[in-house]
Design goal:
5-stranded mixed sheet; single chain; alpha/beta; 10 helices; 331 residues; globular; 32% helix
Length: 331
């Protein structure tokens, strides 16, 4: 007799279904059990309001967590950048698998690079973080761009460019890769230009804390380095008291590896790295003010060490005026 299938709760979007399908295969391999996807519609998926108005990206998570609490699904997959920084006691993030490319990318008309966009170019993004950094970059280069708030799935966003309504849209590299559309990307934004959202490119596999057997099985998919990196990034976000829709960028990476890996250098993989760099940025949406700092320390060996790295950098950023740039303080 075959074991009962594990039920994986997922949002219905094409991207959520793609990444949940990949996790389902991996979970099936480590548990030897079939995994079925249970599609759950979240308020964030049906509302047309801007994310900042409906409570930030946490609106994508609540319905999945409620389904877990009610026992309708056994575990759920979230884009980590959508998870609120406060973790409910009854749930546990059992695994954070190896991270996809954390960078932002652009799809532009005529395959232009960011630096080649015409004067007055209209760039679509729903993210205050991207707006702040793109506008700051443009100011520093004497470029004239307009950032335009948009929402919608990948098709909708790219559609604005194809129809000529916008010159470019900004998307996450990870999402484009996961749905097999990376060939449509026309420019990859260096993290020196736009720092990604805390946790961008990483997935969180969450289940109830009292299901010890499932927690242990899912933990086999955990990547300790990715977990340390995103823990530091999210600790920075939490210490800035920022909601998921705040204009905060953060990235923890390995300085000796990051540049060669970004260039696709195969030599980078085998190196032993002892230091982690954490960079953080917060800015006004128009890009007129940016607080951007970094710190480097030993690769965190514990959860607490990763948390401390984030908190310490946040304290420095607050001392330099970051609090005034957060807009609406998250309640």
């Amino acid at each position: 007799m075959t074991e009962k299938a594990l039920r994986l709760g997922t949002r219905r979007s094409k991207l959520a279904m793609a990444q949940s399908g990949q996790v389902a295969e991996a979970v099936s391999q480590v548990t030897g059990r079939p995994v079925e996807l249970v599609e759950i519609t979240t308020y964030g998926d049906v509302s047309r309001e801007h994310l900042a108005q409906i409570g930030g990206t946490g609106v994508f998570v609540a319905a999945l967590r409620e389904a877990l609490a009610r026992g309708e699904v056994d575990f759920a997959v979230h884009s980590l950048k959508d998870l609120p920084t406060a973790q409910p006691d009854e749930l546990v993030v059992a695994a954070i698998p190896v991270r996809e490319d954390p960078r932002d990318v652009m799809v532009t008309r005529d395959a232009l690079k960011l630096t080649d966009l015409p004067r007055g170019a209209r760039i679509g993004t729903g993210s205050p973080r991207r707006m702040a950094q793109l506008n700051a970059y443009a100011r520093s280069r004497g470029m004239d761009i307009e950032t335009v708030p948009i929402r919608g799935n990948v098709d909708t966003r790219i559609g604005y460019v194809l129809k000529g309504e916008l010159d470019a849209v900004v998307l996450a590299a990870a999402g484009m890769n996961r749905i097999g559309r990376s060939d449509e990307v026309t420019d990859v934004l260096s993290v020196d230009t736009v720092l990604p959202a805390p946790g961008q490119g990483a997935l969180a596999i969450e289940c109830t804390a009292n299901d010890a057997e499932l927690v242990a099985a899912l933990a086999e998919l955990d990547d300790p380095f990715t977990r340390a990196a995103v823990t530091a990034e999210r600790s920075l976000l939490a210490a800035l008291e920022a909601g998921c829709s705040a204009p905060v960028g953060a990235l923890a990476d390995l300085p000796p590896l990051s540049a060669p890996l970004e260039r696709g250098d195969p030599q980078a993989d085998g190196q032993i790295v002892k230091e982690m760099r954490l960079r953080g940025v917060v800015g006004s949406t128009d890009g007129s003010t940016l607080v951007q700092l970094s710190t480097t320390g030993p690769v965190p060996e514990t959860h607490e060490a990763a948390m401390t790295l984030g908190r310490e950098l946040a304290a420095e950023m607050l001392a330099q005026g970051a609090a005034g740039l957060m807009g609406e303080r998250a309640q």
